[in-house]
Write a structure and sequence with these properties.
This protein is mainly α and 132 residues long. It has helices at 4-77, 93-100, 107-129. The protein is 80% helix and 0% strand. The chain is elongated.
Length: 132
């Protein structure tokens, strides 16, 4: 019977040691999760920035191509004012007329385009201000 108390003490020490190891493991796990969460958030922000840069570059390319196309149409038509597609590069109507077949888009089409643009601007604004 004299052996029982030391075994219980050893058991209590072992249990405490196991709890300490478990706590240390959980603390390390939480630290790793926090580090990875911060890195993930940084990557998300970088992705948004890169998407914005890509969008700006794409828009720049489209605008440049539209100006070049308008200038080529003007050169091809010889600046003839009777042409339905010719226009000055500033207005971009030549490109617009080419893309729409010379007719104006419907009010519904314009409204939908404005809604999409508004949504894009709202998303861009919320990503820049950090508001979700």
């Amino acid at each position: 019977m004299s052996f029982s108390p030391p075994i219980q003490r050893l058991s209590a020490t072992s249990s405490s040691s196991k709890e300490d190891l478990i706590n240390a493991y959980e603390a390390e796990e939480e630290r790793i999760i926090n580090v990875l969460s911060r890195k993930l958030e940084q990557l998300r922000e970088e992705k948004i920035d890169l998407e914005n840069v890509l969008e700006a570059e794409s828009e720049s390319h489209v605008n440049r191509m539209a100006r070049e196309l308008t200038a080529l149409r003007l050169a091809h038509n010889g600046g003839n004012s009777n042409s339905s597609v010719s226009a000055s590069p500033d207005t971009g109507r030549g490109f617009h007329s080419l893309m729409t077949g010379g007719r104006d888009p419907s009010a519904e089409t314009m409204l939908e385009a404005m809604r999409r643009e508004n949504e894009k601007l709202r998303k861009k604004n919320s990503s820049n201000t950090g508001v979700a």
